[in-house]
Design goal:
Layout lengths: L2 H26 L5 H4 L9 H25 L4 H26 L2
Helix pairs in contact: 1-3, 3-4
Amino acid sequence: MTGESYLSTALIPLLMTVVLIYYSFRLLFLQDVDSIYGKNKKKPKDKEGFAKAAGKLMVFLAAASLGMAVIMYWSVEIALVEICIAFVIFGILWKKMNKKYGE
């Protein structure tokens, strides 16, 4: 794969990584739950615990997205499988976190 071709293919996972890191920072350091929860929704019971757990999950997904961008250099199919597995794990852990700290 050429450099230009790779960059155009890997741009979406790289942008996803940047956005996830931004929201991870807002959750872990600023504890801004409103940025992902919405302003009109009911707030979580434990705002600090929710922000910490959600921030860690966002870091996990950012790492998976970065991994996808790297793996895409060799195989797009394996990268797609990797990010699908990461999304399933993320969804399961997010649901558990929401039960623990959510409404």
